[in-house]
Amino acid sequence: MSEAHLVIAGAGGHARSLVSLLRANKLEPKAIVDAHAAPGEMIMGIAVVTSINHLNLEDEINTILAIGDNALRKTKANDLKAQCYTLPLTHPSSFIDETALLGCASQIFAGAYVGPLAEVGQFAIINTHAVIEHEASVGAFSHVAVGAKLLGRTRIGESCFIGAGAVIKDGRSICDGVTVGANSFVNKSIDEPGVYVGSPARKLNR
Q1: Where along this sequence does the record place binding of acetyl-CoA (predicted)?
Q2: Binding site, annotated residues for acetyl-CoA
Q3: What are the φ/ψ torsions at residue 105 (nearest 5 degrees)?
Q4: Left, alpha or beta for 124 (phi > 0: left; psi -120 to 50: alpha)?
Q5: For domain 3-83, which architecture applies?
Q6: Hey, which residues are catalytic here?
Q7: What's domain 89-194's superfamily in CATH?
Q8: Which residues does 168 contact at the CB level (< 8 Å), separation at least 6?
Q9: For 43-73, what is each residue's pLDDT tens digit?
């Protein structure tokens, strides 16, 4: 695929991390597309435009989603469908075991570890220095934040957010739609969606 075809969707903070990830793989996006772009806006030397119509590209565009919010990322992926870049993106400094499975359009950032027989779902984000240990799985559209650790045989459902520095004890499972707060410790399986914080993690009542 030509580098000229790569376009990033979303100009929030995650876009900066994604530009760095792409450049580490010798890829340079043509532009960043965001409906709220300011005139003349640039991010790390890349033009930010409000629509792909401003790019005047005749060939197919492959869009990479720079959207940290799980629900928004899922909505955008469904909207774009065939336009999305489908290969997993892995930083050269990450470690991906040869038996691990990476879903389409997943993003594995610098220093992350994905261990033996681990699975990462489609459009999931494994952020900087996160650890996905042996036989653990991360559901589609989930986000494992900076430095979070999923110990062996853990199961994380779809559209979950595991906060920075959080630890999920080995063998535990977390259902779809759960947020685990930063630096929390999950020592029991979670079977009800919601926000869980603390050590041990407990559900916030809202």
Answers
A1: 143
A2: 143
A3: 60, 15
A4: beta
A5: 3-Layer(aba) Sandwich (3.40)
A6: 134
A7: Hexapeptide repeat proteins (2.160.10.10)
A8: 148, 149, 150, 151, 154, 156, 162, 174, 180, 186
A9: 999 989 988 766 665 567 789 999 989 999 9
